[in-house]
């Protein structure tokens, strides 16, 4: 039962909260006391989802930085509406966000990504900006890694690869369209 799961592991959720420390505009992932968290990751499904926006620089260039800031706020609010009470959502830099979802294994992470994608696409962004798209990548424990740094590295490598693939696909579409 999930309620018992969260109650039994309350101290670990406090550890996760400490890891997502406030740092000005950002909530940074800092795992200061990793041992309890490593033991938790070895035994329980946990997902780390990373996402950033496609063409965010274009939003700032065309509509100005205040519009870009409004988009970030709107997307953060939309994403927060999707994550569970015990999930942790953080802006980790620029237009990149992370969600740490304890209890979400490979199937759960796919449902989370689908829900985040739908929420972001329908976020209430400033009038002229329109719909925003994001690229997602994830890693799950214990399948991909059993330590926080390993989860971050797996998810980050996947995000970089997905962005490269998206850029290559867009370049190919442009070549085909102009031929």
Polypeptide structure, described:
The protein contains seven helices and six strands. It has a single domain, classed as Alpha-Beta Plaits, CATH 3.30.70. The chain has 179 residues and is α+β, with helices and mostly antiparallel strands. Helix 4 packs across helix 5 (65-80) and helix 5 packs across helix 6. Mean pLDDT is 77; it is low at 1-9 and 22-35.
Task: Offer a concise description of the structure.
With 179 residues, the chain is α+β, with helices and mostly antiparallel strands. It has seven helices and six strands. Residues 1-9 and 22-35 have low confidence and may be disordered.
List the helices and strands and how they pair.
Blueprint: H1 2-8, H2 10-19, E1 20-23, E2 26-29, H3 34-43, E3 46-53, H4 56-63, H5 65-80, E4 88-93, E5 96-102, H6 106-121, E6 134-141, H7 148-178
Antiparallel strand pairs: 1-2, 3-5, 3-6, 4-5
Helix pairs in contact: 4-5, 5-6
Radius of gyration (CA) equals 17 Å
Q: What is the architecture at the second tier of CATH?
A: 2-Layer Sandwich
What does the overall shape look like?
A: globular
What is the N-to-C order of secondary-structure elements (H for helix, E for strand)?
HHEEHEHHEEHEH
Number of domains: 1
Give the strand order of the largest sheet, numbering strands 1, 2, ... along the chain: 4-5-3-6
CATH domain fold name:
Alpha-Beta Plaits
Report the average pLDDT across residues. 77
Distance between the termini: 57 Å
| Percent of residues in β-strands | 15-25%
CATH superfamily: Reverse transcriptase/Diguanylate cyclase domain
Number of helices: 7
Q: State the helical fraction.
A: 40-55%
**How many β strands by DSSP?**
6
Structural class: alpha+beta
Q: Which regions contain 5 or more consecutive residues with pLDDT less than 50?
A: 1-9, 22-35
Question: What is the C-level CATH assignment?
Answer: Alpha Beta
Largest sheet, described in full? Answer: 4 strands, antiparallel
């Amino acid at each position: 039962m999930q309620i018992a799961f969260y109650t039994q592991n309350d101290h670990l959720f406090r550890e996760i909260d400490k890891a997502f420390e406030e740092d000005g505009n950002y909530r940074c992932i800092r795992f200061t006391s990793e041992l309890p968290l490593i033991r938790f990751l070895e035994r329980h499904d946990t997902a780390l989802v990373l996402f950033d926006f496609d063409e965010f620089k274009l939003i700032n260039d065309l509509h100005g930085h205040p519009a870009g800031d409004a988009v970030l706020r709107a997307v953060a609010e939309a994403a927060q509406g999707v994550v569970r009470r015990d999930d942790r959502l953080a802006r980790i830099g620029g237009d990149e966000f992370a969600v740490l979802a304890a209890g979400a294994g490979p199937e759960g992470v796919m449902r989370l990504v689908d829900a985040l994608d739908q929420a972001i696409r329908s976020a209430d962004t400033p009038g002229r900006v329109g719909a925003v798209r994001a690229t997602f990548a994830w890693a799950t424990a214990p399948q991909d890694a059993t330590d926080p740094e390993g989860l971050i590295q797996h998810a980050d490598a996947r995000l970089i690869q997905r962005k490269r693939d998206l850029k290559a696909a867009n370049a190919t579409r442009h070549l085909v369209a102009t031929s």
